[in-house]
Amino acid sequence: MAIRLKQEGIEDFLVLERADDVGGVWRDNVYPGCACDVQSLLYSFSFAPNPGWSRVYSPAGEIHAYLRECVERFHLAPHLRFQHAILSARWDAARNRWALETTQGPLTADVFVPAVGALSEPVIPALPGLERFQGKVMHSARWDPAYALEGRSVGVVGTGASAVQFIPEIQPVVGRLVLFQRTPAWVLPRGDQPIGTLRKALYTRVPGVRWLLREGLRLLRDALALGFQHPWVLRLAQRWVLRHLRSVVADPVLRDKLTPRYTMGCKRILISDNYLPALTRPNVEVVTPLIREVREHEVVTEDGAVHPVDTLVFGTGFAVTDMPLGHHIRGRDGRTLAEVWEGSPRAYLGTSVSGFPNLFLLQGPNTGLGHTSVLLMMEAQLEHVLGALRYLDARAGAALEPVPEVQDAFIHELDARMSTTVWSQGGCRSWYMDATGRNSALWPGTTAAFRRRVEHFDPSDYVTSARRATG
């Protein structure tokens, strides 16, 4: 957003960051093996190409370095305010501005853009007795690099995208690894490989080649959305994935534990070349009964089995459908976003919310994806926000918000489309669903369809209030 503002000649803005560096999820996640599960060509800004990726799937450290390089390339440093956490944001109707309270003092703004990301608040389940555990406890997003795992008995809770990456990295060095698995995942081969010197040189010297490959990859991955919209397609694909599982896991008992009983795509599809092989090693045990309690030096499962461990690592994801900042943002009538949403986030085009003037959410409700790069979604949102800013400037407008009926119609359309997708029909319980049982995380279509719908700002969808004369 900051880059696009500068490119449009807008300089009067600040980026508030509660940490001491840029990077978000790629700054915070330093666990072994952390990498993107979308190809590097797509996981970079279209307006800030990077021909220097070292692998097909970028390691976290490279993505973090890329984001820091973008700060330098586009001269964003003067706009950054680190260690500025938002304590509260309130719409001041008398002044038609946002009043922000931060850890470094108050600020006001004509426009407020929460860009906090969906994977920013780690979640550790409230396991009975966890507070009594005497060993090391850490979430994958709060990894402690100084803590040595060599020879330890490690319990891993969770089998999501992060666990699939760090388990193969720590398995060879730990003494024993116990994986507490609630639900097995559908795991596809990753096919990662280094990008050679010649290919990098081609990307640098012939940018058109890089662009063509990116576009081809975008179209190919967008086609995968067809399977999420029509679950029978994914049921056909399951046969190939199950054959892959049989070829990697010879033990029928372990293979049965790792075989999902729901339609592929209902939960996030994972990609890895080394996760399944790691689970077949002699020092790994996959435990499927649920955890009953945690004791000082062990975990007890519902079958009564006792599992001694000295380290607990949680790969249990993030607060995605309960945006924590929503509890601190108050709109025109004084209610918070969380109070208005009542457990189910809703926004027009995933970007703006009726009752919250001049508020634009980046990666808001129903903008997540299960098949391709979320940056494609965000870039469409950026253009929408810029269109809104141009409209306000041209008409000396002070504030705009979506027409309630327009927002309601959009949400109704989304829910109708969602009802036939694999996320609703696949027979699983996933983090895509919010507290009300509604899928408020994902977009039920292609990124191309989202861009067509969102990129252009249509003022007829919004209510605009005139600027008031103030001191």
UniProtKB/TrEMBL annotation:
Q: Which Pfam families match?
A: FMO-like
Does Oxidoreductase show up as a keyword for this record? yes
Q: Where are the transmembrane segments?
A: none
The record's annotation in InterPro entries points to:
FAD-bind_Monooxygenase_sf (IPR051209), FAD/NAD-bd_sf (IPR036188), Flavin_mOase-like (IPR020946)
Q: What Gene Ontology molecular-function terms does this entry list?
A: flavin adenine dinucleotide binding; N,N-dimethylaniline monooxygenase activity; NADP binding
Q: Which UniProt keywords apply?
A: FAD, Flavoprotein, Oxidoreductase
State what protein this is by name.
Answer: NAD(P)/FAD-dependent oxidoreductase
Q: Which organism is it from?
A: Corallococcus terminator
